[in-house]
């Protein structure tokens, strides 16, 4: 319903649940934004982002507002394209606007969100897991031992479960409750009950692991029918976020839908600064690693555009570097460095201690706290803190 007014706006009448109307009124005032402008912005954002959760609009009373000429027509076209009613679309748009414009008061009261570190590369064997474990330990380690003393959650998001087993933890059984089940709406209990502390006095109780489960092998298939699938990992982990300063996600060696959820989880949230969270890419000083890098950044660019989100690259880690391999190693290191953004934040040497630590099922910083790799992990943690 639209009728013209003398100004540049037209009156629009639809329906909106009373609680949404009350919340956007208060929130717009908190942000010193005119409610009409908030609604206009909400409708534009709604058309940009992907499918959103359904809002109950069954008892929605009539609602009118004034929108810029033509804005409502555009919105209605977007609704029709997506097969969503105008009332449902408006309710989703208001929900989205509220999420993207948190109350400044609440923001002040709640502690900040945990930073997210997404360790990604679809190439296997480049060091995603070694880096997740090592940097996670350095984040949690006692500051008196050169660590950062942060509360850390390691998420084993690779169904192969290497991160889980190398920290001496059993992967979850196929029928057990799991992160993946919480992502696809089949979760049974509290996700926090699956979290296992990694015990060592240097971490006190600060280092926790969410173990892998073999059900992750079918996650891509399940996600293909999950609503608002890109945010599935975020929705599942949200209840745990308050307990941690940093969440490290060890990704699988693939580029499927599961990876999209991990990359999306590292996106810059409205209240975050550039680089607070994002993707860390371990690579090796060799040519095949460069091809994999191009594919991964291509996927990240696609997600950025499709979902209109900011995804920050926190850096490249050139892993398993051995300068004795001569020209191949030194020239490809130079190539990585010449990319500039993402920058090379560390070069980790190829040393036996990493493999020995894996075999002994101990964290690297527990197995050999003084080795060159442990030192490198602490340096990376400080650079990416
Ligand atoms: N800097 C390193 N020096 C020696 N071995 C390493 C190093 N980084 C990783 N590794 C070993 O290389 C193998 C592959 O590393 P991993 O972290 O599992 O890779 P991804 O998770 O990318 O598949 C593992 O056996 C790991 O212990
Ligand atoms: Mg791995």
SSE order and pairing:
Blueprint: E1 2-4, E2 9-15, H1 18-30, H2 35-48, E3 62-68, H3 71-82, H4 86-100, H5 104-109, E4 115-119, H6 128-140, E5 152-156, H7 162-166, H8 179-183, E6 196-197, E7 207-210, H9 219-223, H10 232-237, E8 246-250, H11 257-265, E9 278-284, H12 287-307, E10 313-321, H13 327-339, E11 344-349, H14 352-359, H15 364-367, H16 372-383
Parallel strand pairs: 4-8, 4-9, 5-7, 5-8, 9-10, 10-11
Antiparallel strand pairs: 1-2, 2-3, 6-7
Helix pairs in contact: 1-4, 2-3, 2-4, 6-16
This protein binds adenosine-5'-diphosphate and magnesium ion.
Structure commentary:
The chain has 385 residues and is an alpha/beta fold. It folds into two domains: 106 residues; 269 residues, Rossmann fold. Helix content is 42%, strand content 16%. It contains 16 helices and eleven strands. Strands 6-7-5-8-4-9-10-11 form an eight-stranded mixed sheet, with helices on both faces. Strand 9, helix 12 and strand 10 form a beta-alpha-beta unit. The radius of gyration is 23 Å and the shape is elongated. The N and C termini lie far apart (51 Å). It binds adenosine-5'-diphosphate (ADP) and magnesium ion (MG).
Number of DSSP-assigned strands: 11
What is the H/E string? Answer: EEHHEHHHEHEHHEEHHEHEHEHEHHH
Bound molecules: adenosine-5'-diphosphate, magnesium ion
Q: Uncertain segments of ≥5 residues (pLDDT<50)?
A: none
Q: What is the count of DSSP helices, taking H or I runs of 4+ residues?
A: 16
The largest β sheet comes out as: 8 strands, mixed
> What spatial form do the alpha-carbon principal axes imply?
elongated
In CATH terms, what is the architecture of the largest domain?
3-Layer(aba) Sandwich
Which CATH class of the largest domain applies here? Alpha Beta
Overall domain count: 2
User: For the terminal residues, how far apart are their CA atoms?
Assistant: 51 Å
Q: Which percent band covers the strand fraction? A: 15-25%
Helix fraction, binned, reads 40-55%
């Amino acid at each position: 319903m639209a009728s013209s007014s003398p100004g540049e706006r037209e009156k629009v009448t639809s329906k909106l649940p009373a609680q949404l109307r009350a919340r956007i009124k208060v929130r717009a005032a908190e942000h010193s934004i005119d409610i009409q402008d908030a609604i206009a912005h909400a409708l534009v954002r709604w058309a940009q982002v992907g499918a959103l959760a359904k809002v109950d609009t069954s008892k929605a009373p009539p609602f009118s507002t004034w929108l810029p000429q033509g804005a409502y027509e555009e919105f209605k076209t977007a609704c029709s394209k997506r097969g969503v009613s105008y009332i449902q679309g408006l309710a989703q748009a208001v929900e989205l606007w509220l999420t993207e414009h948190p109350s400044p008061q609440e923001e002040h009261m709640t502690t900040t969100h945990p930073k997210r570190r997404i360790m990604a590369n679809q190439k296997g064997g480049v060091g995603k897991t070694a880096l997740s474990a090592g940097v996670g330990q350095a984040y949690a380690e006692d500051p008196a031992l050169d660590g950062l003393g942060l509360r850390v959650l390691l998420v084993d998001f690779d169904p192969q479960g290497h991160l889980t087993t190398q920290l001496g933890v059993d992967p979850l059984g196929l029928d057990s409750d799991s992160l993946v089940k919480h992502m696809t709406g089949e979760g049974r209990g509290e996700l926090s009950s699956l979290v296992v502390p990694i015990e060592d006095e240097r971490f006190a109780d600060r280092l926790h692991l969410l173990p892998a489960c073999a059900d992750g092998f079918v996650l891509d298939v399940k996600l293909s029918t999950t609503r608002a699938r890109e945010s599935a990992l975020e929705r599942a982990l949200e209840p745990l976020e308050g307990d941690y300063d940093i969440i490290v996600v060890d990704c699988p060696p693939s580029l499927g839908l599961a990876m999209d959820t991990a990359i999306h989880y590292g996106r810059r949230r409205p209240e975050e600064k550039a680089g607070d969270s994002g993707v860390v890419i371990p690579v090796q000083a060799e040519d095949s690693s460069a091809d994999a890098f191009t594919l991964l950044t291509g996927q990240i660019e696609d997600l950025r555009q499709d979902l209109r989100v900011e995804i920050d690259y926190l850096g490249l880690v050139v892993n398993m570097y051995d300068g004795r391999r001569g020209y191949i190693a030194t020239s490809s290191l130079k190539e990585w460095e010449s990319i500039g953004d993402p920058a090379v934040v560390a070069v980790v040497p190829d040393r036996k201690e990493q493999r020995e630590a894996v075999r002994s099922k101990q964290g690297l910083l527990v197995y050999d706290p003084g080795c060159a790799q442990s030192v490198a992990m602490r340096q990376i943690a400080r650079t990416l803190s």
